[in-house]
Design goal:
The complex is a heterodimer of chains A (about 290) and B (about 230). Chain A has about 290 residues and is mainly alpha-helical. Chain A is about 75% helix and about 0% strand. Chain B is built from ten helices and ten strands. The chains are: A mainly alpha (about 290), B alpha/beta (about 230). The interface between A and B is medium-sized, with 17 and 28 residues.
């Protein structure tokens, strides 16, 4: 029982980070049909900029805000300089552009920062709490609460504000969105910036537990992509559920089977989804009306 | 109010509009009739700025707008009810209507919302429902209501009667004829040439990317060529 609880805690913590990155995928995918494989780099920037800004003597909360600002700026530039000029290109071309951007960002981070692993001090400095014989890190709770707050904030942005509704409208019907006077290219830009902010916050929250380095985004992006596919690409709630589920599957797989296969689980999930349920758990089956 | 000059537009290498020129005066209902594939939808989309043009001019309210981005054309007063309704299916009926006023900077949106609900009482009853759950006719009314929310000077309507029951078709045409009393200028694209010409001040006939005839609605309605080609008479 203690073992089960322990795997659940660590699964949910890692799953929450997958959920945030998957949410970022979903936002951009909905607004533009682009799967942004540089999504993991936003997470990396969140962690790395905070680490180096804090090391330079900036107080931690300010360093975290700076990191979010840097990620948002990078997200904006990625859209403005790489995605927007290629407007009208096929989705595959745009996806390859994001892969290129991700390699560039990783290279810049390796040069500008370094190639070592770094950690951040946890938000709450205390011993792990013992719950039913399992250790629960206070930072895990911070990650889970942080994720819940972000999901709730995003939800109210999308359903309560006119800009959020314009984002949903763009996702649902781009032609109609343009015809009612929505600047859809600005909306896509905004979705890149919001995704970058969400990714960066995830990176900052996770850094005390998972460590961070210049290369942390690569595997994270692929796993979060698997999570988004599992939940149903384009469905924000599916992304969150898919992320948490994938985190749990990994933790249980690593705990009960073998930790060597931990990273393979995400890819088995992709294959499983593609073979058995391509629309994901919560996705709708695509219907083309003629 | 609207003058289109020598407009050409293409999909890839295939030119679908070959130098189209026509005009719409303020307060008129002008209709474009023509068979499927004549380029009517492409023309309306080019006027709204969602279909790229390769040459030609579009003048609207004294300005050249052919290079203006689509969203600024809505601000200038051009709203479109697109072919196939194109409502925002997952959003509520009221959100669809409010998004119609997205490009407006003035705050008085609730007055217009009440106005749309007065014209389409059914939309008021269903204002909290998902737009995708409406029937075809209701969706068409929603699409018209959404365009009205932009407080347009010029309303472009693309096949508003398509796929509707005959009783609804009459209702839609009555509503469009009523726009004129409100001082709205209308450019109506229709395959239902008879009903469109009957309410139009003037009409243009479009065939394979060109305008081949023009005249008053009345004159076209009685023209032998139009009667044989589009009215089946």
């Amino acid at each position: 029982m203690a073992e089960f609880l322990q795997f659940t805690f660590s699964g949910l913590t890692v799953g929450a980070i997958y959920a945030l990155v998957a949410l970022g995928f979903t936002l951009i995918y909905n607004a533009s049909d682009v799967i942004n494989f540089a999504q993991g780099e936003f997470v990396m920037l969140g962690g790395m900029v905070t680490v180096f800004a804090a090391a330079a003597g900036i107080p931690l909360p300010l360093a975290a805000l700076l990191a979010i600002a840097v990620a948002v700026t990078v997200g904006m530039l990625l859209h403005r300089l790489a995605i927007e000029p290629a407007r009208g290109a096929t989705a595959v071309t745009l996806i390859i552009i994001t892969i290129g951007a991700s390699i560039l960002l990783r290279g810049l981070a390796a040069t500008f920062f370094d190639k070592n692993f770094h950690s951040l001090p946890p938000l709450i400095r205390s011993e792990p709490w013992m719950v039913g014989g399992a250790a629960l890190l206070p930072q895990s709770v911070v990650v889970l609460i942080g994720t819940a707050v972000i999901v709730a904030a995003l939800w109210s942005f999308l359903t309560r504000t006119m800009t959020g509704k314009a984002m949903l409208a763009t996702a649902s019907n781009r032609l109609a969105a343009r015809l009612v006077g929505i600047n859809t290219s600005a909306i896509v830009g905004l979705s890149f910036m919001v995704s970058a902010a969400i990714g960066a916050i995830g990176g900052i929250l996770a850094a005390p537990i998972t460590l961070t380095n210049y290369d942390v985004g690569t595997l994270l992006a692929l796993k979060a992509f698997a999570a988004a596919m599992l939940g149903g690409m384009g469905n924000p709630l599916g992304a969150v559920a898919g992320g948490l589920l994938l985190g749990l599957l990994e933790a249980f797989g690593a705990g009960y089977l073998s930790s060597q296969y931990k990273d393979a689980i995400a890819f088995i999930v992709i294959l499983f989804v593609l073979f058995v349920r391509p629309q994901g758990l919560f996705g709708k089956i695509g219907v083309e009306r003629v | 109010m609207l003058a289109v000059e020598n407009l050409t537009s293409r999909y890839g290498r295939i030119e679908v509009l070959h130098g189209v020129s026509f005009n719409v005066n303020a307060g008129e209902i002008v209709t474009l009739v023509g068979a499927n594939g004549a380029g009517k939808t492409t023309l309306l989309r080019a006027i709204s700025g969602v279909q790229p043009i390769s040459s030609g001019f579009i003048h609207f309210a004294g300005e050249n707008i052919e290079i203006a981005p689509a969203h600024t054309r809505v601000t200038r007063g051009i709203a479109q009810v697109p072919e196939g309704r194109q409502i925002f299916a997952p959003l509520s009926v009221e959100d669809n209507l409010r998004l119609g006023a997205y490009a407006r900077s003035d705050g008085d949106i609730s007055t217009d919302l009440d106005g749309v609900y007065a014209t389409f009482p059914l939309l008021f009853e269903k204002r909290r429902n998902q737009a995708g759950a409406l029937s075809g006719g209701q969706q068409q009314m929603l699409a018209i209501g959404r365009a009205l929310m932009a407080r347009p000077k010029l309303m472009l309507l693309d096949e508003p009667s398509m796929g509707l029951a005959p009783i609804l078709v009459d209702q839609i045409f009555a509503i469009i004829a009523d726009f004129k009393q409100r001082g709205l200028t209308v450019l109506l694209v229709e395959q239902n040439a008879y009903a469109a010409l009957a309410i139009a001040d003037r009409g243009y006939v479009m065939e394979t990317g060109r305008i081949t005839m023009d005249g008053t609605g009345e004159a076209l309605l009685h023209d032998d060529r139009v009667r044989s080609a589009f009215l089946g008479l």
